[in-house]
Structures are given as C-alpha cells and as structure tokens.
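Let us work through a complete example step by step.
Step 1: write down the sequence.
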Amino acid sequence: MTDGAQELEKKGWWARLSAGLKRTSGSIGGAVADLVTKRKLDRTMLEDIEDVLLRADLGTDVASRIAERISDGRYDKGLSAEDVQSIIAAEVEKVLAPVAKPLVIDEGRKPFVILVVGVNGSGKTTTIGKLAAKFSAEGRRVMLAAGDTFRAAAIEQLKVWGDRTKVPVIARAHGSDSASLAFEAVEAAKADGRDVLLIDTAGRLQNKTELMVELEKVARVVKKIDATAPHAVLLVLDATVGQNALSQVEAFGKTAGVTGLVMTKLDGTARGGILVALSEKYKLPVHFIGVGEAIDDLAPFTAHDFARALAGLAIAGKSE
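Step 2: predict the structure and record it as tokens.
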C-alpha cells in the first residue's frame, strides 16, 4: 500500500471512529460549550462539568480527576469549550494509554488458542470473522470453532465467515456439547499445523450460573491438549450497553480469566465513555475496537485517537 493510500485509510478510520463516538462526544462537547459560554469558572460550573462526564459513563474517579485538572489555576477565569475538551482528552488518554496493547500471537504456541466470550448480541461471532480475516492477511493459518452450540444461527454465521475468509470451521449440530467441540477443534488445529484457533462460545448471561460452569468446562478441556491454553481469552463488549459492561467484565473475568477486551458497535448510538471507566477499574488490555459490520471495521485500539474523538476534537492532519 502506498503512503497516500495509507493516509486515506487512516482518515477513513478516523471519520468512522468520530462518527461512532458522536453520541458521547456530542453530549460532552455540547454541554461543555453551554456551560463555559455563560460564566467564568466557579465551583458550580465544575460540579456541572463533572456531572456531564458522569452521564457520559467515564466513571466517578476519572470525572473527579478531570474536574480537578480543569480547576487548576483557572478559577474566576474565562474558558473556551476547546480548553475543557483538550483537558478531557488528555486525562482520558492517561487512563487509556497503559491498556492500549496489541494482541500478540506467540509464534511458539501452535495453535495459539483464543477463546472469545461475551453475552448474546455483543458481536462475538462477527468479531471472530474479522479477526480471522486480519490474521489470514498477516499470513497466518487460521481455524475457527463454532462453540456457540446453543444457537443454530451462530453456527451458520460462523460458517459464512469461514467461507468469506477461506478459513476452515469446526462445527457440529445445534445442541452439541460445546466443550467436546472445543477439544475436537484444538486437536484438529494441532494436527493441521494451524497457527491460530479462534473458539466461539455461547452468549452466556453473566447471571446464569450453569452457563458459566459450562464455559469453565470449555477452558478446562482445552487444557487437556495444551496445558498453557487458552492462550488468550477475549471478552467482546457491546459499547451501547453502558454501565452493564462493568458487571460483564467482573463476571467473565472470574469465570474465564479474561486477558483482553474488544469493544464493538461504536456506531453513533454507543456510550463509548464506559471504556474509560472499565480501563480505570480493571486495567485489562484493550486490543481492538469495532465501528461497524464491514470486514475492515475492526482496528487496533489507539488511546490518543479514541480520547480525542471522545472529547469531540480532531487530530492534527485529520478532518472530521
């Protein structure tokens, strides 16, 4: 790809990310603009700004820190909306930078087993398909396992992704034992010399104990073939669910030993601020974010870009 083509691709991604965070950035930017144009900075305005950040799901600790940072040496002074947005972006980036980590595939583990977990509707199966396309484009030999045996539609959806990405899919009939299928998939991937195995799982509701027990069983049988597997456990989160994402991370973290996050559905209706609260509380690596259904709408997470888009600011050299 030429430098010009890469730049166009980056601008396209930035436009999609900005659009995806429009709900949050619009609520923050609009409210801040209304506040700062009315009066000079005082305690009441700071409390109002903090309320705006709390409503945007950034979390109590982060909202409080941002308010303190805004107040620093600025009492009784006029502020522009962009001044405040710049401070918000800088403080959000401080929270996100330590967790913005790529998913590293250990070449010494073959297959590198990735268990993908999350509740129904979070975008797990679509994310697996996009990851299969990404890994294949990197020259890796990939295999998929349709472990969401509770939903016939999920099995068929994964097969479609397998066809699209020219990646083999291990699948069984609807209602089959998911742990047995996972065991079979690891054996098959090992025998075929596959580099990466992505295992789909049922969309387990975090308050359903029996489903969580089943998920633990899947992880346990995989270890019978490779004691170090699964090598990564990705929790896919729907960005539109807001605060509910916190309880999902808590539950899946205890059950499946989540090693990293993928946030999907940053599509304009999303409450993207929740990613800041999650990062502040759990410090889990954020590997990817998704802004749509297209195969190239999943990209590595970048703290700077996300923080600027969340605050409603542009990046130098990129237009919104």
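Step 3: interpret the result. The domain at 112-301 is CATH 3.40.50.300 (Rossmann fold).
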